[in-house]
C-alpha cells in the first residue's frame, strides 16, 4: 500500500480511489449481519421486514461511547433511550421504514416467536395523562448471537419433536420452523413407501 497525503494527513492507499474515499465515510445506524438473511426467513425467503426491524432494535441497544474530551479515552458507555427498555410503537416503526402497522406487528410477532425479542405492554404516565398499552421492546442477546454467527458454533435451539413443538431448530445449516421439519419427515416416509 502506498502512502498518500489526504487533507494534510498521511493515510494508506488501497490502490483504488473509490475504496480510499470510503475510508472517510463514517457509516452509522443499523447493521444487518449476512446470516440473518438465511436464518430469519418467511416462506423460505429472507424475512426482510423482521430483519430490518431487528436491526433497528439492535441499533438502539448498542451502547454509546463516552470519551474524555481532552484525551479521547473511553470513560464509559450509556444507553440511547430513556426508560429501562426501548419504547417504540408499531406506527413509529411503520413510518420509519415504510411498512404498514400490520406488517410491523406481524414481524414483531415472528421475532418474538423466534425468541429474538420480548415485548411488554405497559401503562405509563406522560405529563398529566395516563397512556395504556405502550409497547416496550427488548432484544434477547443470547438468541440473537445464535442467529448471527456461524451455525457450527451455535448451540442448538430446542429440538423438534414429532408430536409437537412450534419452535425452531438448526438443521442443514439453517434455522427451520419445526412444522417444516415435520412436513419434510412425512414427505420422506411417503416417498419411502412409494419406492417399496
Secondary-structure topology with pairs:
Layout: E1 2-6, E2 9-13, H1 17-22, H2 36-39, E3 41-42, E4 45-46, H3 48-61, E5 64-67, E6 74-78, E7 86-87, H4 90-97, H5 101-113, E8 117-126, E9 129-139, H6 141-148, E10 168-171, E11 174-177, H7 178-195
Antiparallel strand pairs: 1-2, 3-4, 5-6, 7-9, 8-9, 10-11
Helix pairs in contact: 3-5, 4-5
Summarize this structure briefly.
The protein has 196 residues and is of the alpha+beta class. The chain is built from 7 helices and 11 strands.
Give a written overview of the molecule:
- With 196 residues, the protein is α+β, with helices and mostly antiparallel strands.
- The protein has helices at residues 17-22, 36-39, 48-61, 90-97, 101-113, 141-148, 178-195, and strands spanning 2-6, 9-13, 41-42, 45-46, 64-67, 74-78, 86-87, 117-126, 129-139, 168-171, 174-177.
- A 3-stranded antiparallel beta sheet has the order 7-9-8. A two-stranded antiparallel ribbon has the order 1-2. The chain has a two-stranded antiparallel sheet with strand order 3-4.
- Strand 3 (41-42) and strand 4 form a beta hairpin.
- The termini are far apart.
Output the keywords:
three-stranded antiparallel beta sheet; 196 residues; alpha+beta; two-stranded antiparallel sheet
Strand content: 25-35%
**Intertermini distance:** 65 Å
Question: What letter string, H or E per element, gives the SSE order?
Answer: EEHHEEHEEEHHEEHEEH
Radius of gyration: 23 Å
If strands are numbered along the chain, what order do they take across the biggest sheet?
Answer: 7-9-8
Helix content: 25-40%
Q: Report on the biggest sheet.
A: 3 strands, antiparallel
Q: pLDDT average, as an integer?
A: 82
The helix-and-strand class reads: alpha+beta
The total of beta strands comes to 11
User: Number of helical runs?
Assistant: 7
